[in-house]
Amino acid sequence: MMSSLAKNRFSFVLILALICLLLPWENIAMAQAGSPPPSPSATCTSESIFDIDPVPGDDGIMTQIVSYLKDVLNDASERLFEGITGNASFQKAVSAAMILFITIYGVMFTFGIVPLRFADALIRLIKFAIIWALMTDGWAFFNEYAVKFFNDGTDDLINAVTTIAFGGDPTAPAAGDPSPFRYLDAVAAQVFSSKMLVALMGAFSTGPFGLLVGGLLGLSLGVFLMAFIQALYTYGLSLVAKALLFGIAPIIFVFLLFERTKNIFTGWVNQLIHFSLLPILLFAFFSFFIVLMQEAVDNILDVELCWEGFHAIEGSPENLEGWRFIPEDKDGNPIGTGATDWSWEGAISCLENNPGGDCPDFPLNFIDILAFLILSYIAWKFSDLVQMIAAELSSTALLADRLHFGGDTGNGGISKVSNLFGR
Question: Is the model more confident about 202 or about 250?
Answer without folding.
Answer: 250
